[in-house]
Amino acid sequence: MKYFIDHEKKKVHHSQHAGDQCEFSNTAIENREFTTNITYVERLILQENYAKCSYCREVLISLN
Ligand SMILES: [Zn+2]
After folding, report:
1. Most exposed among 9, 39, 53, 55, judged by the fewest C-beta atoms under 10 Å?
2. Number of domains the chain contains
């Protein structure tokens, strides 16, 4: 599974489901990151207060 991280808004998206509704269009390119590293994603959520995108949440449910 591939994740799309918005470092500006501190949100984690599922790269295949992320779209206009996720409101990352204003985020600078350098603040966008793609990763498949689940450990890294979990650390951002648990330690850096990143949030799972509510629009992509259904496919991120495995992170709970
Ligand atoms: Zn999203």
Report:
1. 39
2. 1
CA atoms of 36 and 8, how far apart (whole Å) = 19
pLDDT digit of tens for each residue in the chain (64 aa)? 899 999 999 999 998 888 888 989 899 999 999 999 999 999 999 999 999 998 887 655 555 4
Distance 13 CA to ligand 1 centre (A): 4
For ligand 1, the distance from its centroid to the CA atom of residue 11, given in whole angstroms, is 8
Domain that holds residue 21: 3-63
Strands 11-14 and 51-52: parallel
What residues does the ion ligand 1 have nearby, CB within 5 Å? 13, 18, 22, 53, 55-56
